[in-house]
Specification:
The complex is a heterodimer of chains A (about 280) and B (about 350).
Chain A (H helix, E strand, L loop, with lengths): L5 H28 L4 H5 L11 H11 L9 H32 L5 H11 L8 H10 L6 H5 L6 H12 L3 H9 L4 H12 L1 H16 L3 H6 L8 H8 L9 H31 L4
Chain B lengths: L3 E9 L5 E10 L4 E5 L6 H9 L6 E6 L2 E2 L10 E4 L11 H11 L4 H14 L15 H14 L4 E5 L7 H18 L2 E6 L2 H7 L2 E6 L2 E6 L1 H6 L4 H6 L6 E3 L5 E2 L7 E6 L15 E12 L3 E7 L6 E7 L9 E6 L5 E4 L6
Parallel strand pairs in B: 3-8, 3-9, 6-7, 7-8
Antiparallel strand pairs in B: 1-2, 1-4, 4-5, 9-10, 11-13, 12-14, 13-18, 14-15, 14-17, 15-16
Helix pairs in contact in B: 2-3, 2-4, 3-4
The chains are: A mainly alpha (about 280), B alpha+beta (about 350).
């Protein structure tokens, strides 16, 4: 076995600890920097212990924002990003679960055609269709709106396929039992299918929320006003090319605040996730 | 009076395959009708057509005098017990049983009364808060039964409900199903491939083969007078011995057109004399199967090689290779023509 010898174990630990340091150090430094005054951060040597401006920095960033971004407070950026990420995650789940329901449980003409059309869109990521999509959004006057941020990203072939695969494992007898029990299509969906898909939905929600939260290209195109920026875009805009023009302490605070919600979602949903896995049933 | 009437029912699939080829069965009120046959004989399809889960290509199915061909399963007033139980995995036992009633808008108090009553009958009272995965196979089976009972339907449909249970439990549940069905007095249609289940449960036994009814009637009558070689071989365990009349010594007249001769393992006599018109055939013993109270002797005829099984009481101590003289009385012989029909 690997790691049976004392030196093997030590080596393995050394590698793991090194890995953790490499991954964790930037995060640690972001937090440290967010507690110092702006000029202190850029003046060598780099401070490696927490400074005394935690409360001031966070209050300034959260309520006043960065001056070079027109003073949009970070809470507004967080709100924008949250609306977009939630809209995308919930929208994708709703759309994909209902389309998978239609494709798996109903026999209608062109069923396979629709399935393949959905499947083909997998091959067309946002970047490929970005120009026509942008044109449509401009024509619909959806620039600088939440709808414009969410709508083009709301359909998901991957999630549809995932739900389809899951629905295919539901035994036909269960569907028939529900029919005999007087559950119509809507009731069956609500009473049987949704509760059974719970853990799948939780898993997808985590993945899709983070996908929405970290969107870069689309919000960059869709938002002109500073108030409509998402936090990722705002971060990018805060950093100017001349070092002294960048309010580094505010940038660092914004970074910390940008990381927190996805971490929170993962930590909180992980419970539902694990419960879903433990309760796995046929 | 919930009699179920099937008139020339056919099931044809779009690919031209005919699963059920014109079946007519009349199930009297309160009777338990068992459909038995090998897999693929169309018995399950027929049951599903009565349930409304399969469309009826031709013919007519009526429940209590009402033609239900176009009626949805929900409105047929039937309850079905599935082979895999098909319990809702995320619902507690109580909710599994109550779900159908809730969907019908039954008042809450009435649902509660019926569920508890059914749970008491099936000894499920202490399991109402469990989920299906926390139950044993037998308990799940009972919940599936309970779900059917609480509905108080006109007809029970059973689709091989015992085939996922072990032999001992199957025996218990068989008795219980029979008792429940008697007590509740609900007309039932029961599908199985197990001839023992079929024989013990049925008021009306229907033997199916290749989409057609081979024989229908009282189970013992079918056992005594199988209408065809297929029925003779399917009903009864071990199956009836079938031999070529020419390979045996017969001290009586052979009916005209007889191509096969059958006798049951328990009707064979090893020693003593056959009565007038009886059969005598020489055979070589291949092996003995002691079951305890009785033994089955497996043998083959040197002439023609037909395999035979003879039942003897108690233990038979005989070496393979022993030569046997098997006799059967005339009144216990079954004659079949070349087409396999009884003469």
């Amino acid at each position: 076995m690997i790691g049976d010898s004392r030196w093997g174990i030590r080596l393995a630990h050394a590698i793991l600890i090194l890995g953790i340091l490499i991954v964790a150090f930037p995060l640690y430094y972001v937090f440290i920097a967010s507690t110092h005054a702006g000029p202190d951060i850029v003046r060598p040597p780099m401070p490696l212990t927490p400074g005394g401006r935690f409360i001031e920095n966070y209050r300034a960033a959260f309520f006043e924002g960065a001056a070079n971004l027109g003073g949009v407070p970070v809470w507004r950026l967080l709100l924008n990003t949250a609306i977009m990420a939630l809209g995308i995650a919930v929208g994708k789940i709703v759309i994909s679960i209902t389309s998978a329901y239609a494709i798996v449980f109903f026999r209608f003409p062109g069923r396979m055609v629709f399935f393949w059309i959905i499947f083909v869109t997998l091959m067309l990521p946002v970047e490929v269709r970005i120009l026509p999509t942008y044109k449509v959004m401009v024509d619909l006057k959806l620039i600088d709106t939440y709808t414009g941020l969410i709508l083009p990203l709301i359909a998901s072939a991957t999630a549809t396929l995932l739900f389809r695969q899951f629905f295919l494992t539901i035994p036909g007898e269960l569907v028939e039992a529900a029919r005999i029990d007087g559950a119509g299509p809507f009731k069956f969906f609500k009473d049987i299918l949704l509760p059974l898909s719970k853990s799948n939905i939780a898993a997808l929600f985590v993945i899709l929320f983070i996908y929405g939260w970290t969107q870069y290209l689309w919000p960059l195109l869709m938002t002109n006003q500073a108030e409509m920026n998402t936090i990722v875009i705002a971060l990018r805009k805060m950093v100017s090319f001349v070092d002294h023009g960048t309010p580094w302490h505010i940038v660092m605070v914004t970074c910390v605040l940008a990381i927190l919600p996805p971490v929170l979602v993962v930590v909180l949903m992980q419970r539902a996730f694990v419960r879903g896995l433990v309760e796995t049933e046929k | 009076m919930a009699e179920v009437d099937l008139k020339a029912v056919r099931k044809r699939y779009p690919n031209g395959m005919e699963a059920v080829k014109g079946v007519s069965i009349a199930i009297p009120d309160k009777a338990l009708c068992v459909l038995v046959g090998p897999s693929g004989c169309g018995k399950s399809t027929l049951l599903r057509m009565v349930a409304g889960l399969e469309t009826i290509s031709e013919g007519e199915i009526s429940i209590e005098g009402r033609v239900v061909n176009q009626v949805s399963p929900t409105d047929r007033d039937i309850a079905m017990v599935f082979q895999n139980y098909a319990l809702y995995p995320h619902m507690k036992v109580y909710d599994n049983m109550a779900y159908g009633l809730r969907n019908r808008g039954t008042p809450k108090a009435e649902i509660d009364r019926r569920v508890r009553e059914a749970a008491a009958t099936l000894e499920l009272g202490h399991l109402l808060d469990r989920r299906p995965r926390e139950l044993s196979g037998g308990q799940r089976q009972r919940v599936a039964m309970g779900r059917a009972i609480v509905r108080q339907p006109k007809v029970f449909l059973f689709d091989e409900p015992l085939s996922n249970l072990d032999a001992k439990l199957r025996g218990q549940m068989r008795v219980e199903i029979k008792r429940l069905q008697r007590e509740l007095g609900v007309t039932s249609l029961y599908v199985t491939h197990d001839q023992l289940e079929a024989m013990t449960l049925a008021d009306l036994l229907v033997v199916m083969n290749a989409g057609e009814v081979e024989q229908a009637g009282d189970p013992l009558e079918i056992y005594e007078k199988p209408a065809s070689i297929f029925v003779a071989g399917f009903i009864g365990a071990p199956p009836m011995n079938l031999i070529d009349p020419a390979s045996a010594e017969l001290s009586g007249p052979i009916p005209a057109g007889a191509a096969k001769l059958g006798f049951r393992p328990e009707d064979a006599i090893l020693d003593g004399f056959a009565s007038e018109g009886g059969l005598k055939i020489r055979a070589i013993l291949d092996g003995v199967e002691p079951v305890g109270a009785e033994s089955y002797l497996h043998a083959h005829a040197p002439a023609g090689g037909a395999r035979m099984i003879v039942r003897t009481a108690g233990r038979a101590r005989m070496e393979p290779g022993t030569e046997l003289e098997i006799r059967a009385p005339a009144e216990k012989l079954h004659w079949f023509d070349a087409a396999g029909r009884r003469i």
